Every structure is written in C-alpha cells, then in structure tokens.
Amino acid sequence: MKPTPRKQIHVMAGAIADDAGRILVARRPDDAHQGGLWELPGGKLEPGEDPEAGLARELAEELGITVFSSRPLIRIHHDYGDRHVLLDARRVDAHGGRPSGQEGQPLDWLHPDAMDPQQFPAADRPIITALRLPQLLLITGADPLDPPAFLARIERALESGIGLLQLRAHELDRDAYAALAGRVFDLCERRGARLILNREPEEASALPRHGIHLTARSLRARDIRPGGAQDFVGASCHDGDELAAAVRLGLDYALLSPVKPPRSHPGSEPLGWGRFAELVDPLPIPVYALGGLDPTDLGDAIHHGAQGIGAIRGLWPE
C-alpha cells in the first residue's frame, strides 16, 4: 500500500512595520495547527494565485487593510511531519487602513529583537532572524594598519545608516585586532549597529562583539556552532555544500559569493543571479549576496531571494 502523500501548503506571511520598527503579529487560534503561538499575519495561497496578490488578499481578509506594495523577505521550507509548508514572507512597504483582527484574533506589535522564537511556529523562526538583520552588510576594507583613518571611515559608514559591520582585518596580529575591535564596538554601540568579528571563534570569544563570522575553511572544520546564545553567527560560502554546512551548524545567516566577478579576484567564475537563487531558495536561513556588488544591486538581490548584499569596496567609504 502506497503511503499517503503529505500536504504541500504554500503560505503567505506579511511583515508590517510601524514607525518604531515594531512588527505586527497575530495569535493563532487554540484549535488550529500550531495553535496558541504567534505568527506574522497571512494565510494559504490559492491555486494559481500570484504570491503578492495572495498576500494582499489574505491581509485584507484578516486585518481589513489594503496592501499597495510588498517585496520578498525570505522563503522557508519546513517539514512538520504531517505536512510540508512553504512559508513565503514579504515585507509590506505600503498599505492603507488600520490593521484590526477581522476574525477576532489577538494582535500585537513587537520589535524583532523582543520576539521570543519559542512563542512562534518553528517555520517562522528564521523569519525573526531575517527581520533582525539589515539589508546591507559592510565588510571593512583598507587600512586597519592606520587606525585613525580606518575608524573615521567606519564612523562615516555608521552615519550613513550601516547597521551590520564585519571587522575584517587579517593584517593585524591578535593584540592589534583586539584593540581595534574594542574601539569599533564602542562606535557600533553608540550608533545602534551590530559588530561581527571575522576572527577564529576561540580568539573572538574574549572580545566585545555582537557576533562571529566564520571563513569557509573554519566552517568546514566545525561540527558544533561556535559563539554564545546572543551571538549572530554567519559564514562565507561558495557552493551548496558549504551552505548545507552552515544550515547543519545552525548558523544565523550566510554570505554566498561571488555573484559577480569581484574586483579583488577578477578571474573568479561568478555564480550569476540565477544560480544564486537556485542555491538560496531551499535554505532555512537568510543569505547575503556578495562579490562585485554595491547598493545599486540591492533590488536584484532581494528579487533573487537574498537578505541583502554584503560588500567591501561597494560600501566602504572613501
């Protein structure tokens, strides 16, 4: 006797933000699947329905609002055992009307950093990470050997709105890197930005930080996620095997490169946006596009499933 095929359910979810950066969440009915947990509002896509139109329809029915525009946030494939869910989350950029629970469901506004993942269905948890991470990730460039000029560049980047900064300074020895990391951390704290240290976790563990970045070599050598519970931990990836390793370790995000020929390695064979999208679509973590990119590429990156872009030259102030 053939096993009964599991349900394949395509669900749309909308991230609606208020002026304070809080996200609207709704409580699932107690008698529903994953009942009693909080979620982004939305619902099932109808057969043949366009995802953007489907989200607008669901939010009109659930919240009484009119969605004018939305854009991709992250798509999550999740196996609950009895059903397979594709959770297709989009950021709602513009809407009309004041959201209210049209079906009697409780609503609340929560900042992403205040969301407790345990109070959300498992499929929603990577969405919380995606909401916490900005669209631009600055990887520091030249010249960490000149700390005053280097720090001045970082200050200009933070003033421009950079919210996630990776301190990459392989030229520095352990002590010099530690001294620089402390000063950069203070700058980030004052601006409300997050500092990610691109250093071996064993070295970074004693330094002030908001997260740790693994090189591809360090990623392949590990069986356990490094860092503490509050760390954002990511990794550099170049193919499907390395992305799978990042997922297996339970990392928060990955960088996938090169999408375009990077200026630092002009002979590298680029993935292109099509291959990038193929590799990213099945992953349950946010992925930044990297390699030869600048802010003008952000729209293409989002369209092809990226969290955003990471860049050195493309974001490093002159």
Provide a concise account of the structure shown.
With 318 residues, the protein is of the alpha/beta class. The protein contains 9 helices and 15 strands. Strands 8-9-10-11-12-13-14-15 form an 8-stranded parallel β-barrel.
What overall geometry do the principal axes of the alpha carbons give? globular
Distance between the ends: 67 Å
Q: What would you say the CATH architecture of the largest domain is? A: Alpha-Beta Barrel
Number of strands: 15
Helix content: 25-40%
How would you characterize the largest beta sheet? 8 strands, parallel, barrel
Query: Which structural category fits the helices and strands?
Result: alpha/beta
Low-confidence stretches: none
- Computed over alpha carbons, the radius of gyration is 20 Å
CATH superfamily of the largest domain: Aldolase class I
CATH class group of the largest domain: Alpha Beta
Quaternary structure of the protein: single chain
The helix count comes to: 9
- Integer count of domains: 2
Average pLDDT taken over every residue:
93
| SSE series | EEEEHEEEHEHEHEHEHEHEHEHE
Across the major sheet, the strand order is: 8-9-10-11-12-13-14-15
* Beta strand %: 25-35%
CATH topology of the largest domain: TIM Barrel
